[in-house]
Recover the amino acids of this structure.
């Protein structure tokens, strides 16, 4: 009788263990299927304001369903670390590549930063600041025309004392990154200093075009601030 009870308990224990093993395998299979149907994306650990420089400790991975994955979502932390945010990033929000940029005031591939000689300039919009896009026109005795078809990024705008023209209390670039047009307007109105040095990010062909047009002292540049500067940043 005792042996029969013992054998019954052994059988029940074996059945329970077998059941747990089967359940464990089932859970692992579900996890594996779930893993195969998801993809890791990079998200902020906490809220990140516009104009912030991202570092790896500010970011983490989050699994999302493959069906929710969109082109442009960042999947590698190292791809993001060291970049600057264009717009605020919410906690746990998948980072899209258009919301960040790396050294965006630096020249892009195929470009260099050229200081435009003062002798080449007839006029420049007083509101031009670093990070803006401008249009380049040329004025000569024959008339005026658009010299460079596309818009050009301003790398820096400085005074004769080599100081960047801006409002220290409310930098224009920070306000632009935050999409605050009122602060951008205010910073341009309140900034002190006269533009003495203007540096533009240009391709070699664009610079040679400017140099060729203005080197004879008959043609001068007109540099105009484009309204695309605000929404394009």
């Amino acid at each position: 009788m005792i042996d029969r009870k013992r054998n019954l308990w052994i059988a029940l224990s074996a059945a329970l263990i077998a059941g747990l093993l089967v359940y464990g395998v089932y859970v692992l299979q579900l996890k594996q299927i779930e893993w195969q149907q998801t993809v890791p994306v990079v998200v902020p650990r906490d809220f990140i304001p516009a104009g912030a420089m991202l570092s790896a400790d500010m970011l983490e991975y989050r699994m999302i369903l493959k069906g929710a994955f969109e082109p442009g979502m960042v999947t590698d932390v190292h791809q993001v670390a060291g970049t600057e945010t264009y717009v605020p990033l919410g906690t746990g929000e998948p980072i899209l590549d258009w919301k960040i940029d790396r050294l965006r005031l630096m020249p892009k591939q195929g470009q260099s930063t050229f200081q435009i000689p003062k002798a080449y300039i007839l006029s420049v919009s007083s509101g031009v600041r670093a990070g803006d896009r401008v249009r380049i026109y040329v004025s000569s005795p024959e008339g005026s025309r658009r010299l460079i078809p596309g818009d050009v990024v301003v790398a820096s705008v400085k005074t004769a004392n080599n100081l960047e023209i801006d409002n220290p209390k409310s930098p224009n670039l920070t306000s632009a990154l935050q999409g605050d047009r009122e602060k951008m307007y205010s910073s341009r109105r309140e900034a002190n200093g006269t533009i003495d040095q203007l540096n533009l990010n240009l391709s070699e062909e664009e610079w040679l075009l400017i140099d060729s047009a203005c080197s004879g002292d008959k043609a001068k540049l007109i540099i105009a601030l484009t309204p695309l500067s605000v929404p394009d940043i």
